[in-house]
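Structural prep section.
Before we set up the soaks we want a predicted structure of the protein with flavin-adenine dinucleotide in place, mainly to decide which crystallisation condition to try first. Input record follows.
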Amino acid sequence: MGREPSERVDVCVVGAGPAGALAASSLASDGHDVVVLEAGPRFDFESRQRRMEEAIRPGHHGSVWEMGGERDAFSATGEQYYPLNVARVKGVGGSTLHWQGMVMRLHPTDFDGGHGNDDPAWPIGYDDLRPYYADAERALGVAGDADNPFAPAREDPFPLPGFPPSHSDSLFAEACEALGITTHSVPNARNSEGYDGRSACVGYGTCQPVCPSGAKYDASVHIQDAEAAGARVVDRVPVQRLETDGDGRVSAAVYATPDGTEHRQAAREFVLAAGGVEIPRLLLLSRSAAHPDGLANASGLVGRYFMDHLFAGAGGTLDRETRQNHVGFITSECHQFYDDPGQAVERIETGETVVPSAGERLSPIKLEFLNYAGPSPVELALDADDWATRCWRTSEGTTAPASRWAAWSASRHAARTGSRSTPRPPTTTATPSPTSSGRSATGWRARSTGPPTSSTRCSTSWAWTSPGRSVPRTPARRTTTWGRPGWGPTPRRAS
Ligand SMILES: Cc1cc2nc3c(=O)[nH]c(=O)nc-3n(C[C@H](O)[C@H](O)[C@H](O)COP(=O)(O)OP(=O)(O)OC[C@H]3O[C@@H](n4cnc5c(N)ncnc54)[C@H](O)[C@@H]3O)c2cc1C
Ligand code: SF4
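Run finished without errors. Recording the tokens verbatim:
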């Protein structure tokens, strides 16, 4: 079947990003007749290696997901330019094809208007969403540890053990500690070990814009599931507008095929999953005599008050190698200033006030340390004649060649515990803010009983091997289960 419409189905889903893919997979598994209409193309999984090679070439600045150009032409009239063309991916998988994959839960204060600023309370609270967060973490395969003393409460461990801190995150952890700032792991939608038929992370380091191994979750996974459960997914068919019946209910989605022909897909129910920009656009494009302001727009607010999370960046030059691009994702972050963003910060050793308590009301602040900044692995390799000879840090803090790691790894192989927890070295002596809410009891205890000595700090780093091969991690000085047997690429599940 080409791009002709199906006969009236139970559910028509517009958009094949994570929202559409998860909805389609769940509905199809429950026996509903589902059609997914996706504006962009279907990308061949086998093409990812080529896309990765394209992305790391020196001088490459375009999109590897065929975004931009006439198809995605748009104008931005606001004060701030919003680079929509390159920010989102149009295609089966949506923006998760090039997302970062950090998947923290919101804090209870995000819902209850408890930040003391103008943010209003939501009609639902964190506890309402808790079971759904857990479901989503299982579906995506989230790797994380219970070491965040500021995280909201959770019932179960993450489905996968967390990643240890990268080399560059360890450097930041050391600096943060001295300032009384706690760092901890990041919940990552990428496999720290094989999960759901997908490979463990093999360290290509190109997560943004493409993960060739499939270790980073993207929504094509659930499109595959939806199709296996009987859903029909049609690509390159942007929905132009929605039609309503006499009762004002949506009855059909009008979509265009690549040759410009319009078709009508009728359905009993519609799920709009076209993303935060295209959904309001589609509602406004669906104006009719009965709905002159577009659909669902009695308030006149559709398409207004678009909110993004604000990002403020600070850069600097370190007097030592940072090796960010050896690990293509963020492994450590800090929620210390999330529930209490105005708190003072004191230097641990001297008690000196580094940042005074803020007198104003602030919104939550989350600190991240970018592991994907800097030159690409190819640029680094072209620039250095010692690539792969100094790829890991020894317990003495010096660098050593990969071959020495291999010898160490072989001798350790038999001693691995197989435990699913990945201990991270304690990174701070700071006392978490008393106003932080919803701490995980387990995380709290683990943190306060760890020996906060400098000898345990910053002792983990990563090694890098050529793409497609398994990536050994150097051990922390303390016991670590990282590098479990079976580490390395596993076949992606069969379609
Ligand atoms: C660079 C980048 C990094 C990110 N990193 C993170 C992160 O680390 N953690 C995190 O939680 N989030 C992150 N995000 C955000 C996250 O990717 C999005 O919130 C998420 O993908 C939204 O899912 P969605 O299904 O609602 O929409 P999308 O992923 O945007 O998918 C919508 C789909 O609908 C299709 N579509 C649009 N209009 C139509 C139409 N008219 N007809 C048919 N189909 C249509 C699009 O082509 C697209 O495939 C990141 C986003 C970007 C761009
Ligand atoms: S480091 Fe590589 S294998 Fe791991 S998730 Fe990122 S792109 Fe995928």
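Observations: The CA atoms of residues 179 and 466 lie 37 Å apart.
Flagged for discussion at group meeting.
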